[in-house]
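Name: tRNA pseudouridine synthase B
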Amino acid sequence: MSTPTKTPDGLVIVDKPSGFTSHDVVAKMRGIARTRRVGHAGTLDPMATGVLVLGVERATKLLGHLALTEKEYLGTIRLGQTTITDDAEGEITASADASKVTREQIDAGVAELTGAIMQVPSKVSAIKIDGKRSYARVRGGEEFEIPARPVTVSSFRVYDVREATAEDGTPVVDLVVSVVCSSGTYIRALARDLGAGLGVGGHLTALRRTRVGPYKLDGARTLDQLQEELTVMPVAEAAAAAFPRWDVDAKRAGLLLNGVRLEMPEYPKGPVAVFGPDGKLLALVEDQRGKAKSLAVFG
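Structure predicted for tRNA pseudouridine synthase B:
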């Protein structure tokens, strides 16, 4: 009788289908990988498709640190209509003729939303306000405000401007855009704010995430492909791709795994992946007054 193969530790880069929540994808992966230990690094709205990074087994320890990395998107913004969710999932709350909006005005509006900005997340989002999810407050009919948060939009580009007519007859403008941004940035909030700034309203009609940190769409697999063949990026390879690398000798590896705070070389601020002499991932650490403080141990 053959022994069931153990699920490998590592990351699974999923090309998320539209209509699935991030939790749906995690649930599906638990079945495919035959383990309960599956998590994701940063949610993706049900409407959106593209890169969703999952951790399996011990790689779940990497996820909180990966969630903080830069993300890249391709999307379509419709100017001329506002929705309750700031995307195509929600009902339309206002319409305005957007046919007179010029390319110059669009570019100026995009420039205003590029760089370090303060952004108010969408009300229909998973943000917690006083311990309760924002979308739950909306469903309960509550009146509330979400405080603006600092985010960084390092690139916001418009590739195409298309005139169209909405179902209700409103002349609208569809923009094909790409965005590179920090974690916690809402692309649908960018769509809402761009439309508001132009005086016609706006919402997101399509979104595809093409990158999370170093993990890109070309390395992603659909759920159907993963059902056929589970492709796992080994935890050591995943950490080496995402974080600066620090190689230590056997003596230091032993000390580190015994909780000794070693003096560490200088690295950019953030997690550093520590590897032993055999190339095995030992830990994720961060610099605390020149000493290595463990964030997660793998060795």
